[in-house]
Specification:
This protein is of the alpha/beta class and 371 residues long. The chain has ten helices and twelve strands. The protein is elongated and about 90 Å long.
Length: 371
């Protein structure tokens, strides 16, 4: 839900997947053999496990959860990290006196909510999984799940049934309400939204945005174009906030807000809210037209560029500073995820060449054939 902007071999796939997984595992254990002197203990955990041989000849089981955490172990930013470095070398400074100083781990839930099945899962069951062929929905879900693994957050993928009388996006309020009691924060993203920096934790962003205990909802505004001022605005000409990325905090006002939002289309508390059952922007319009006016001081509205949009969007500078939301060009969800993962994988490879681990670099002082 967004502003109308112009769009900026013969072997089986499973064999290729197995080979790729093996290469990654061999690389990880080879690298760790250089870093640690003896036995590498890995605890057993849930998830897909692989039995591998360490450099000492010991057979151990390691899960994808542990592989991801290992890859990002030296990359993760602390909640109070002074700054985050952008790929272009510039820095995003953290304001002084951060509120969230400790990692919250499983007190934070990363939430995916879909009425659609993952096509990649169907392909996997048929033995046809191929990263190159998955759509943006799976790409977004993989981004969110990987992010949760890196930082030790809880993760849930809720496959919800659709309403009979309203648009599918109306499933958001009830899903949030059913899980918020178990967490301090829920972070929800649409499938076409993605964390830009997988190594930057939610706690850091909470500090950066100065999220206070009274804030029940954190959302970014949509783009606003003076040429089409009515497009992303409510009846009072106030810009909508986008529900494609939400941080929901468990406090005394959260459940009343979610209940009012969920029941809005029934026209009991808010007359004419039923008009947003189907027309765009569905539950987002209802939140912007009604809910936020009763609970305004409990909502933190971020500028569009902080957690909405993507590179190339000039209106309202919606560049996706921390969270990108690809209303168009959705294939870039996969691109962002790939670049994050490749940075984590290639950093230790670069370390090998920078420090000449194992003598991989040999100086040839004379360009001649030696007898």
């Amino acid at each position: 839900m967004m502003m109308k902007l112009p769009s900026a071999g013969g072997r089986s796939p499973l064999f290729a997947l197995a080979v790729s997984s093996g290469v990654v595992l061999v690389f990880i254990f080879g690298f760790m053999a250089w870093q640690r002197p003896s036995r590498i203990p890995f605890p057993h955990s849930a998830g897909s496990t692989h039995s591998v041989i360490t450099s000492t000849g010991e057979r151990v089981d390691i899960s994808i959860n542990e592989i991801i955490r290992l890859l990002y172990d030296g990359l993760k930013a602390a909640p109070t990290e002074p700054f985050i470095r952008e790929p272009n070398g510039s820095h995003i400074e953290l304001p002084s006196r951060p509120r969230y100083k400790k990692k919250m781990g499983s007190d934070i839930l990363i939430l995916d909510l879909e009425t659609r099945p993952l096509q990649s899962t169907e392909d996997f069951k048929k033995g046809e999984y191929d990263w190159r062929n998955i759509n943006h929905v799976s790409g977004g879900v993989f981004n969110h799940y990987t992010y949760a693994l890196i930082h030790g957050y809880d993760y849930k993928f809720i496959h919800a049934h659709e309403f009979e009388d309203r648009h599918a996006t109306w499933i958001k309020p009830s899903a949030l309400a059913n899980h918020i009691k178990d967490y301090k924060f829920i972070v929800f993203l649409d499938a076409d939204a993605a964390f830009r920096f997988l190594h930057v934790p939610i706690e850091w962003m909470l500090n950066y945005w100065d999220i206070k205990p009274q804030h029940s909802f954190v959302m970014a505004k949509d783009p606003w174009d003076p040429k089409e001022p009515q497009y992303n605005s409510d009846r009072f000409n106030r810009t909508y906030t986008n529900t494609g990325f939400m941080i929901v905090q468990n406090n005394e006002n959260t459940m009343p807000m979610l209940k009012a939002w969920h029941e809005c289309p029934e026209d009991t508390r808010y007359a004419n809210c039923s008009q947003w059952k189907q027309p765009k922007f569905h539950e987002q319009s209802a939140f912007g037209e009604y809910i936020r006016y009763d609970y305004d001081k409990y909502i933190k509205e971020l500028d569009c560029g902080e957690a909405n949009g993507f590179p190339g969007v000039e209106i309202s500078n919606c560049q996706g500073k921390f969270v990108r939301h690809y209303w168009f060009e959705k294939h870039n969800v996969k691109t962002d995820f790939r670049e994050n993962i490749m940075n984590a994988i290639t950093l230790p490879i670069q370390k090998i060449f920078a420090e000449n681990k194992g003598g991989v670099i040999i100086e040839q002082k004379q360009n001649a054939i030696h007898a």
